[in-house]
Amino acid sequence: MFTKGRNRLMRFLYGFVLKPIIFPFDPEDMHNLFLGVGKFLGKFSLTRWKTRLWFGYSNKMLEQTVLGINFKNPVGLAAGFDKNAELTQIMPSVGFGFEEVGSVTGYPCEGNKRPRLWRLTQSRGYVVYYGLKNNGSEEISERLKNKFRKDSPCEKFPIGVSVAMTNCEENLDTSMAAADYAKAFEAFADIGSYTTVNISCPNAQGGQPFTEPIKLDVLLSKLDAIETKKPIFVKMSPDKTIDEVDAILDVLRRHRVHGIICSNLTKQKNNPKVLENNLPGVGGISGKPLQDLSDDLLSYIYRREVLTPQVTADGQARKFILIGCGGIFSAEDAYKKIRSGATLVQLITGMIFEGPQLISEINLGLVELLRRDGFSNISQAIGADYK
Ligand SMILES: Cc1cc2nc3c(=O)[nH]c(=O)nc-3n(C[C@H](O)[C@H](O)[C@H](O)COP(=O)(O)O)c2cc1C
Q1: Most buried by CB count within 10 Å: which residue of 63, 117, 143, 233?
Q2: Distance between CA atoms of 349 and 288, rounded to whole angstroms?
Q3: Could you confirm whether 262 is annotated as catalytic?
Q4: Cβ of residue 131 lying under 6 Å from some atom of ligand 1
């Protein structure tokens, strides 16, 4: 009762007080403002405790251990919001079950020129054209290492690290680009809970070369040679044809890949869910216009790879863990992805449009949906639509 009433109050304050003030401003400035506030709140135990009081929620039904990692709930912050790993102290208090930092590239990268973030108010999404802006693998790995010290507020909070290639002309050469991924990958080989190889950024020079099977094979072979105990995820684009997805999956199965994130941003500007005219010619779209595309990709991969696991060359059947991402604005949106095969979910856009209490609303709503369907733990709902 307390959590529901508190969430309603926070939703009202965000929707009717804060959002009308911040939404008219430039979205990148507002993103930076959120980062500043989050960093400040994460610094002190009192502010972390107060944040938890306003936004936290926990329930045993949402807890699961996946690939050896303990998740308090299945809702994570997707890559791109906390590019430089500055919010890891506060995110557990905001109610997230995990977060993915980055994407981090081998070398520091300024990203594309501003403007590079546009808000689609009617469609409830963003056009994102940051171009992998981040402070680089050396600085960010050093920062994250300190966060995992004993007694840190995020010591037990799962943190994934998304790695990508530096957005520069040199990386138009595939072997240079693969070496750049390897530099970032190696910097985090024993820092963080899992690593995501982001092959689907729509905003880097040279496009998405590693979605081509032969190049992906080269990249993953290079990463296979780097020692790490962490599970590896690969983040997919929602814009590939079925044949292209099949070819990518065939490569993933031959390498040290434990899971797949469905999905990154879409480049499909003629998407019927986009209500605005005159979109910028660059960038990828997040939020509601992406939802069906990422849901379709997720359920396709679940049916192809998990329900009927393909046997690899060494005779092993590999079942990927799937993370659903794209257009989650409610518990129902998250539950749909879980019932379609996602073990975990991630979001960004929903939190900005609905407010930070959305995380607790989703978790509370998931518990109600699990009870409605007779499940005692979230893990029983994974892929339930196909059972
Ligand atoms: C501002 C912004 C920056 C992003 N940057 C990255 C990034 O650096 N790496 C990445 O893998 N995905 C990035 N993404 C994509 C998100 O991780 C996610 O896949 C996508 O936004 C769909 O989730 P959503 O609809 O809940 O926002 C970014 C998204 C947004 C909105």
Answers
A1: 233
A2: 9
A3: no
A4: no
Q: What is the pLDDT of residue 387?
A: 82
Q: In sequence order, what DSSP letters do the residues of 171-182 get, joined into one string?
A: GGSHHHHHHHHH
pLDDT tens-digit map of 309-358? 777 666 666 789 999 999 999 999 999 999 999 999 999 999 999 999 99
Model-wide pTM > 0.90? yes
Of 348, 353, 362, the one to substitute when testing ligand 1's pocket (max ligand atoms within 8 A of C-beta) is 348
Q: For the segment 109-126, what is each residue's pLDDT rounded down to a tens digit?
A: 999 989 999 999 999 999
Nearest residue (by CA) to ligand 1, atom 5, is: 80
Ligand 1 atom with minimal separation from the 132 CA:
8
Per annotation, catalytic residue among 109, 154, 201, 262: 201
Token reading at 109 = 């990268």
> Any idea what the Cα angle at residue 188 is, between residues 341 and 356, rounded to 5°?
55
Q: Which residue has the tokens 């991924």?
A: 181
| Closest atom, ligand 1, to C-alpha of 27 | 1
Separation of alpha carbons 160 and 172, rounded Å: 27
- CB-ligand 1 contact for 369 (6 Å cutoff): no
> Which residues, 6+ apart, have CB-to-CB distance to 373 below 8 Å?
381, 384
Nearest to 130 by CA among 237, 295, 283, 269: 283
Condensed to tens digits (0 to 9), the pLDDT of residues 42-87 reads 999 999 999 999 999 999 999 999 999 999 999 999 999 999 999 9
Structure tokens at 71: 């998740």
Distance CA 310, CA 292 (A): 25
Tens digit of pLDDT for each residue in 168-188?
Answer: 777 777 888 889 899 999 999
Domains of the chain as residue ranges with CATH: 2-386 (3.20.20.70)
Work out the average pLDDT over 95-102. Answer: 96
Which ligand 1 atom is at minimum distance from the Cα of 351? 26
Number of C-beta neighbours around residue 70 at 10 A: 14
Nearest to 326 by CA among 62, 98, 97, 80: 80
Q: Which residues contact 333 (CB under 8 A, 6 or more apart)?
A: 291, 327, 350
Whether residue 350 has its Cβ less than 6 Å from ligand 1: yes
Expressed in angstroms and rounded, the spacing between residue 263 Cα and the centre of ligand 1 is 9
Percent of the chain with pLDDT over 90: 81
